[in-house]
Amino acid sequence: xxxxxxxxxxxxxxxxxxxxxxxxxxxxxxxxxxxxxxxxxxxxxxxxxxxxxxxxxxxxxxxxxxxxxxxxxxxxxxxxxxxxxxxxxxxxxxxxxxxxxxxxxxxxxxxxxxxxxxxxxxxxxxxxxxxxxxxxxxxxxxxxxxxxxxxxxxxxxxxxxxxxxxxxxxxxxxxxxxxxxxxxxxxxxxxxxxxxxxxxxxxxxxxxxxxxxxxxxxxxxxxxxxxxxxxxxxxxxxxxxxxxxxxxxxxxxxxxxxxxxxxxxxxxxxxxxxxxxxxxxxxxxxxxxxxxxxxxxxxxxxxxxxxxxxxxxxxxxxxxxxxxxxxxxxxxxxxxxxxxxxxxxxxxxxxxxxxxxxxxxxxxxxxxxxxxxxxxxxxxxxxxxxxxxxxxxxxxxxxxxxxxxxxxxxxxxxxxxxxxxxxxxxxxxxxxxxxxxxxxxxxxxxxx
Length: 448
What we know:
Strand 2, helix 2 (50-54) and strand 3 form a beta-alpha-beta unit. The protein has 448 residues and is of the alpha/beta class.
């Protein structure tokens, strides 16, 4: 029995790493196929840390578009582990090869939203002709979001939801795989008495300047909220190679383009009139930190740019290239923190798993293009992933700006009872570690 992990992007390792580490410990056979044709994939000689370095002999770089089918057909006694259904066309030979051999590892509620969006983002059809495994966190999580998927698809006259509802999808609850560091990691020299607040920046993306986000005002909202204070990451390289003039013009072009798509949108003017922005949020978070003797640590993601004002108010800004894994820099930063703030991010699950209090900063309906299906996917009602008793407090942006700085850190303590119930619902319904559940399940299949 061999496991082949198909890594399309760096983020795949975030979900694969705990399982891979366990397979190392039990001396199981495995390989990692890395799509070298994807700019978002991990690159050769671009590993950081002992864990990824230990995998170098098991990593195979390949061109996904050209080689994936032949590589699958040439493998023997292998299970294929991916975050997705097959992203390539299947013929009868491949269908036979993948039957009861394709494993989809849940990655938050993105596992459900990608099925909802399948026809929009993928050129290949969602093939329902082979039996596959879907390794879910919990039955409750699956039931909640599969119901959302079915209802959302039905509204759009889509039958994509049947992929998970089919008898050919074998659902196996294993829990949320998370790597955690046993030791705290200090990202900078600070006084030992000071705690830390970890802030996860707003996920501003220039890609949303395209229709339909422009048409309905979604991009205008996020540009005024955060984008106008963004300086793109490639600017440092431009400055180094070509000088200040090009750097200045590049930023000016970004700003003019953003304002040109926002100036006639009511959503943009509403924010400007109210003075609501990520900069204002950061000011209030800084005030909260000063009041509670906390260092402000801001952790960015490679695919998103960080608000320039963050560098002025933070004690530490972590720019993550996402090559350090198991634990990742994010997981280390969470363990090193006393409280975490973020914007409707599935990172809340890992934060909760590590028993740290999380403050969810609610994104308004306009961010989701006023799409009822997406609003429901990220709903903040009590009992949801983003709003659960002492585990996750959920504040609107306006509430956070007006009241957060006056609060005490002690108000955000985590209750063990609340953690136990949240864990059973969303993280792991059993007591065994997810990576052990993974290996144990497929080992039993092979024995039988």
